[in-house]
Write a structure and sequence with these properties.
single chain, alpha+beta, D-amino Acid Aminotransferase, Chain A, domain 1, D-amino Acid Aminotransferase, Chain A, domain 2, 2 domains, eight-stranded mixed beta sheet, seven-stranded antiparallel beta sheet, 15 strands, binds pyridoxal-5'-phosphate
């Protein structure tokens, strides 16, 4: 008779994780100990929404905007949790304070959750909230920030907005991952996906901006309405730079004077090459540099900062 292995009573996780703190079911834990059930539809069906905020030099940046987007996403997906925005803000502050991190990446998630009968009806599941804080990370590394990223305009299409609404931040990322592999095959560092009508959409974790003759343009629809994207609109108004949300044909992106991408993970990040060719005159463009500088300056301004109390 076959000898069965002993049943583990406590899972021993062999995987490695970054340093950080998580919140789950009323408890604060080292991030490596936070777990999602294998039966959670967030895991099984990518049935979840989330948001990512950041802490820079000990303060959250535009946290209220991230919370508003998160609550809108939950409402769109018919999800609800018992926590208010203020309670979530408090949980996130506590996670950051416990982590001690002065520059942090702060992710909070609502999953469809589990249902005791493994029902196929999403209304039977109990929605779950989780959050975690790890060291701040950027889409672009310091070298790429200095010289500009190498972007590939892939022929991969973003999941159509009529199928999965990209304004609800979601984990439907197989199009993005496919785009990344196509970019790597073309010796690029990251990818932009298209919308099926010859326009660019967005990339894995970022919005895309083109600058031509001093005017800044970013796609209006079919993308996540990024908080950093909104910050760029605010910066352009402040610097009196013309800026609009309008379709960006793939060829217009290739012909732009300057291109940059935006994300909470890294801020305003220059693109130096597209499909192997230099953007404009190459390197980091002057308007991109000004927008990037203003973005980081704004982190010190009252209206955008929410100081973390580290209890020191
Ligand atoms: N687009 C997608 C698909 C994203 O996942 C993200 C952020 O992670 C962004 C755009 C940028 O949004 P934000 O500036 O709010 O970080």
């Amino acid at each position: 008779m076959r000898k069965l292995p002993e049943l583990s009573t406590r899972y021993q996780d062999p995987h490695r994780y970054p340093q950080g703190i998580a919140y789950q079911d009323g408890q604060y834990l080292p991030v490596a100990e936070a777990k999602v059930s294998v039966l959670d539809y967030g895991f099984l069906h990518s049935d979840a929404t989330y948001d990512v905020a950041h802490v820079w030099e000990g303060a959250f940046f535009r946290l209220d905007d991230h919370l508003d987007r998160f609550f809108r996403g939950m409402a769109e997906l018919h999800m609800s949790i018992s926590l208010s925005k203020t309670e979530i803000a408090d949980i996130l502050h506590t996670c950051v304070a416990l982590s001690g991190l002065k520059n942090a990446y702060v992710e909070f998630i609502c999953t469809r959750g589990t249902s005791p009968s493994f029902s196929r009806d999403p209304r039977d599941a109990e929605n779950r909230f989780l959050a975690f804080v790890i060291p701040f990370g950027s889409v672009a590394n310091p070298d790429q920030l200095e010289r500009g990223l190498h972007l590939a305009v892939t022929d991969i299409l973003r999941i159509p907005p009529g199928s999965v609404d990209p304004t609800v931040k979601n984990y439907h990322w197989l199009d993005m991952v496919k785009g990344l592999y196509q970019a790597y095959e073309r010796s690029a560092e990251t990818a932009v996906l298209q919308d099926g009508a010859g326009h660019i959409a967005e990339g894995p974790g970022f919005n895309v901006f083109a600058i031509k003759d001093g005017a800044v343009t970013t796609p209006p629809t079919g993308v996540l309405l990024g908080i950093t994207r909104q910050t760029v609109f605010d910066i352009c108004a402040r610097l009196s730079l013309p800026c609009e949300a309008a379709p960006v044909p793939a060829d217009a992106l290739r012909a732009a004077d300057e291109v940059f991408i935006t994300s909470t993970a890294g801020g305003v990040m220059p693109v130096g090459r597209i499909d192997g060719k230099p953007v404009g005159t190459g390197g980091v463009g002057p308007l991109t540099a000004r927008i990037k500088e203003t973005y980081w300056q704004m982190h010190g301004e009252e209206g955008y900062r929410h100081e973390v109390d580290y209890g020191e």
